[in-house]
Write a structure and sequence with these properties.
The structure holds 2 protein chains of 2 kinds. In chain A, helix 5 packs across helix 6, helix 6 (184-192) packs across helix 9 (244-270) and helix 8 (222-238) packs antiparallel against helix 9 (244-270). Chain A is 43% helix and 19% strand. In chain A, strand 2 (15-22) and strand 3 form a beta hairpin. In chain A, the strands form 2 sheets. A 6-stranded mixed beta sheet of chain A has the order 3-2-1-4-5-11, sandwiched between helices. Chain A has a 5-stranded mixed beta sheet with strand order 8-7-6-9-10, with helices on both faces. Chain A has helices spanning 35-39, 46-68, 87-104, 113-119, 167-177, 184-192, 212-215, 222-238, 244-270, 285-298, 307-310, 314-326, and strands at 5-10, 15-22, 25-33, 77-83, 108-112, 134-139, 144-151, 155-161, 274-278, 301-303, 348-349. Chain A is globular. Chain A is an alpha/beta fold. In chain B, the strands form 2 sheets. Chain B has a 5-stranded mixed beta sheet with strand order 3-2-1-4-5, with helices on both faces. Chain B has a 4-stranded mixed beta sheet with strand order 8-7-6-9. By secondary structure, chain B is α/β, with parallel strands linked by helices. Chain B has one domain: ATPase, nucleotide binding domain (Nucleotidyltransferase, domain 5, 2-Layer Sandwich), CATH 3.30.420.40. Helix content of chain B is 30%, strand content 29%. The chains are: A alpha/beta, B alpha/beta. Chains A and B meet through helix 2, helix 3 and helix 8 of A and helix 1 and helix 2 of B. Bound molecules: zinc ion. Zinc ion (ZN) binds next to helix 4 of chain A.
Chain lengths: 356, 207
Amino acid sequence: MSEPLVLGIETSCDETGIGIVRGRTLLSNTIASSMDEHARYGGVVPEVAARAHLEALQPSIDAALAEAGVRLADLDAVAVTSGPGLAGALMVGVGAAKGLAVSLDKPLYAVNHLVGHIAADILTPDSDPLEYPTIALLVSGGHTSLLHVRDLTTDVEMLGETMDDAAGEAFDKVARLLSLPYPGGPEIDRAALEGDPAAIRFPRGLSRASDMAAHRYDFSFSGLKTAVARWVERCEAEGTAVPVADVAASFREAVVDVLVTKALAACEDLGVPRLLLGGGVIANRRLREVALARAEAAGVTVRIPPLSLCTDNGAMIAALAAELITSGRRPSTLAFGADSTLPVTEIQVDERVAVA
Amino acid sequence: MILAVDTSLGTAVALIGDDGASRAEASTADPLGHAEVIGDLIARVLDDGGADPVHHVVAGMGPGPFTGLRIGIAAARAFALGRGIPVLPVPSHHAAALAAIEEDGVTGSFAVVTDARRREVAVTVFDGTDADGIPIVIADTVLVPAAEADAHLDGVRRIDAATLSAVALARVGARAHAAGRTLTGDEPLYLRHPDVSLPGAPKKVGL
Ligand SMILES: [Zn+2]
């Protein structure tokens, strides 16, 4: 099977993603987001997300099939995110994927969400194939991870991740401190337009010399969030107006600085002159600008998939499964579950044992 | 044949023939682990149920703990989508009620009581079956604190269900379909709002 036709189901957070790929060719990337329902709560509410997935799944599958111009009977396999992510949300996708695979009597591939973000890159037809090894920086509302990818289907290592908030969450929380709406990323960006990124020197988490031994590639954003909160409170206590533009620009600069610094440190330490960016926060223009400029200075090539494939989506899940199939991997058993903390080393979950 | 799937308590799957007789049944009583077992249980009843085509899928719509409940509904819907056949949503308590009336010979009014977590139970009061053979609800499903359930029932016979029969669920769905009736909507019987409060002002961190 050289070009497997795969439908991918992704429900790890607040996007119901259905993707259809044929090998490395994207046929549909259909996304239903429940973001608007979370806006009033200021962050993703797991139960709200899970309810929305159940409602959105069938219409999203129908829409993806229509866009791709294929029928379910044509599929070679079904793929689904097993983890990491929100347990209750993941389980909706797992239940649906199993029902669909059994119904169609097709193989089912349960895969890792984070590795899926890397697989998004192979769906970009106009660029050269992804070269290995590469460092990958995945930044979203749900994760902030630095990975060493030696091979997409067999060898991915977690170098570091956030110890507390994900970067996207930090944007949401700081936006709230500044009385800006949810989601915080675009709002902080807008507010930062007129601001001076050097106006306030906010702390860079886990960046002191003493942090380097244990947390060289780990991230922490809760101290930064607290520092912003203190700053805002001090303004209020002094009766001065909060300089929202400067606070937003300086906060964003602290986040971007620490992300790019650690990613490029990994490139240098491991002798890997390639950096792949993924996750929804890559939509942040300042992050892309700083990453591109500093990587160029360091002699590191940067790859950024189209933004529609950077946010959570089913196409990346289908793409990863298509690579697994092409490389000869057997399907998953039907016994896997949702694993909210699935380690990145488990690229595929519960592969069937070979029959002798 | 009709396939029925319910994950409101344990995980229960069954196939019935067009005569209403059970063709295959597979279940676990475990109130957790629905996602892990749902695929194998459906595959098993298909293997055991014979070659007749499945033409409807009955989905048990709860009440039940939300996270588990949704897994069965998602699987039922996706299975139906894969076969291009309709889903018949059925309240899960109807299965327990039908089994009580037709298998255990319960007469008069009685309450089906299931665990709703957080020290609450879900209660539906039934009395017999109607002309279509469907259990008659005389008091809609409500959540009551477990400790107050007996007072709430005020002498009505109480039938606590820890598992339910997917065969009975399939029969209720088949009878409703034959009568052209829809017993519940597409929304699961959540009976609770998502457990969140709106954010207030940011907490002070102190200077
Ligand atoms: Zn993600």
